[in-house]
Every structure is written in structure tokens, then in C-alpha cells.
Hints:
The chain is α+β, with helices and mostly antiparallel strands. Helix content is 50%, strand content 16%. The protein has 4 helices and 4 strands. It has helices spanning 28-38, 46-54, 81-99, 103-127, and strands spanning 6-10, 18-23, 61-64, 72-77. The protein has a 4-stranded mixed β-sheet with strand order 1-2-4-3, with helices on both faces. It is globular, with a radius of gyration of 14 Å. The relative contact order is 0.17.
Amino acid sequence: MMLIPYVLPMLLQTHVRGLFVVQEQFDPTEFAKLVEQSGIIPKKLIADYSTDYEEAAEYQGASIFRDVQLPWIIVIFKSVPREIRGTALHEIAHLADHMTCNSENRARFIEHVYMTFSDDLDVRLARQ
């Protein structure tokens, strides 16, 4: 089983749900396919999210936040697990700035999202 690409739906109890999309490199067609397969982003909004994705072409990752009521996406363009984790943490911190209203909630959001993502990555690596 290949580790990458993959999509991880985040169905959080206390926050709006979202997605992690992990790709080896920027690939808009693959991104749209993974997002659609997840079932988290309404089909009518995939084009809008894809437009935001296009702006991330020159980066190692990005957080796509449209509105507090809509799902968010963190996209990572890496294939080495340590680099995937580092980029994920960086993008989660950016996303937390939009998703939370105080430092305590921000810390809890970052912890919860990162640990959920990291635990899933551990399971995927163990299956390889």
C-alpha cells in the first residue's frame, strides 16, 4: 500500500469538520479527486476549494479556510513522514488562528487535530 496520496477526514466533536490531503507534490486533478472521494466537501463547493488549492502551488502545504461554518482543508506536499508531520503542525497552527477565539481554545484545537492526524499517520506507516 502506498502511503501517498491520501485524504483523512477530520470529524471533530467540538469544531467544524475538515480534511487533510497529503500529496507528494502539487497536483490539482488528484486533489479534486481525493476531496470528492472524502464526501466532506459539498460537490458544489469543490471548484471553490480547488481555486484556493491552486494558490498553494509554490508552498510545502496550506490551510484552506473559507468560513467557520464550512469544512476546512489542510494540504501537505511531502512524502517523508517527519516532513509531513512538521508541515501538518505548521498548517494546523495557521488554521487555529481562524477557528478559535482565545489561546486556550487554540491550544486545544492544535493538540486535538495534530494528535488525530499523527495517530492516523502512525497507523498508515505501520501498514506499509
